[in-house]
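Hello forum,

I keep getting stuck at the same step: I have a sequence, I want structure tokens, and every attempt I make locally crashes halfway through. Rather than fight my setup again tonight, could one of you with a working pipeline run this one for me? It's a single chain of 323 residues.
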Amino acid sequence: MGSTFLSELEERLLRYVRIDTTSDQASTTSPSTAIQFDLLHLLRDELHEIGAQDVTLTDYGALLASIPATVDAAVADTVPTIALLAHVDTAPAYSGTDVKPLVHRTYAGGAIVLPDDPAQVLSPDTSPYLASKIGDDIITASGTTLLGADDKAGVAIIMTAARHLLANPSIAHGPIRLCFTPDEEIGRGVHPNLPKDLGADFAYTLDGAEQGEIVYETFSADAAKVTVTGVSIHPGQAKDKLVNALHLAAKIIDTLPQVTLTPETTEGREGFIHVYQMSGGAAQAELHFILRDFERDGLAAQGALLQQVCDTIQATEPRATIT
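Reply #2:
Ran it on my machine without issues. Output:
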């Protein structure tokens, strides 16, 4: 069974990653991109093919299904319903178009150079976990795109396990719910209706890092967008008139703590404020932040700090507007 299971798992992953499912932070729809339906519709069809029950694609883009319990009816009511979840979207920071997965058979160690961009190299020096995979098969992208294993590896695992369980009802288990969600990469993976629609007692998200790792706690998260509106004047006539929104945006970033509250200076349960995008021009600029903390009070304090910094910079230049 092991080799058959792994072969199916690989085949599914290689198919799924070729489907572009990039999410879009700027979109207001759910899913944020219509292309996510390309994979969701395929998974819906495959769930029907393998005999899953209650296959439903919600209006907010979550695909749900059930695997009925196989335990003895006498104890069925005492067995909890568990759910397995994965997300179909890939991060918009890098291209998910025309993904060309490569299988590096029986990895012998050392660097893996990605052929479409030889500057992209996977090495145990920068990815120490790779050293533990000597002798295994390694799947990568070709160098110009994401692979999309985050989280299509999770999708492939769930689909492969679901087919195996449905094909082998002698394996005793309680009721299982399956869930594939959109837009996790942009922080919108859990719709308010999802917990009720899922109907599980316990849920496990297959979206991790090293093999064998179980994450039992996560942070609370907020997002913030700061818009700085300056005063636009032709540079040739700008003295004492121009208010450069980019300069003020840079001051906001520079005023925030640099050595105690950024992702690159924190670890473990330490929270952070991360500016991940800056856009615009002299007339108007936008800053996008994510705020993370394991305690709600800490998250609230981060929001208050960001507001305080914006107010301070605003006070230095009343002709500007910072919201």
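The chain has three domains: 2-98+146-205, 100-144, 220-322. If your local run keeps crashing, start a new thread with the error log.
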